[in-house]
Amino acid sequence: MDSPGARAPTPVDLENLANAAYEFREALIPLHGITPDRCDAAATELRNRALVAEERFFAAVAGLPRRERTLAGHWENAAVMRYRHGLEVFARAEDLGAEMLAQLATHRRPSLPALTELCDVCTHARTLDQHQRTEML
Fold it and tell me: Which UniProt keywords apply (predicted)?
């Protein structure tokens, strides 16, 4: 039973979430190839744009149910690894997560099997990345 002073949950704007995810993805792409030691105005502007887009994405995610937050977290990790760090082993995970996030705008929740697949794809990408890094050493 709800307490008398309890507030109703804030409704989540799923279209806003899909737009925020798209903008974050687009802001990450130009960061590939910009090294941390690069300090020129163009690099700073790109980093700031990505930071603002990331903050907007996480603000849009904050009110989501757990399943959608899990989806968003996996997608964000895969997108950063793919675009910011250039690790193409995360491409499938990022594409799958982006597709599922876009479906949220049409009010289609990810199914548990689809979310499990995304988790498995992310785990596989991390394993491949670790294996490749070990071979480089």
Answer: Plasmid
Q: What is the CA radius of gyration of the chain?
A: 17
Element (H, E) at 130: helix 112-136
pTM given for the model: 0.80
- C-alpha–C-alpha distance, residues 43 and 36, integer Å: 9
Widest CA span of the chain, in angstroms? Answer: 61
Q: Which of 108, 115, 94, 78 shows the shortest CA–CA distance to 15?
A: 108
Distances (CA, A) of 51 to 31, 77, 92, 99, 118: 11, 14, 24, 22, 25
Q: The tokens of 64 are what?
A: 């989501």
pLDDT digits (tens, 9 = 90+) for 73-125: 999 999 999 998 889 999 999 999 999 998 888 888 889 999 999 999 999 99
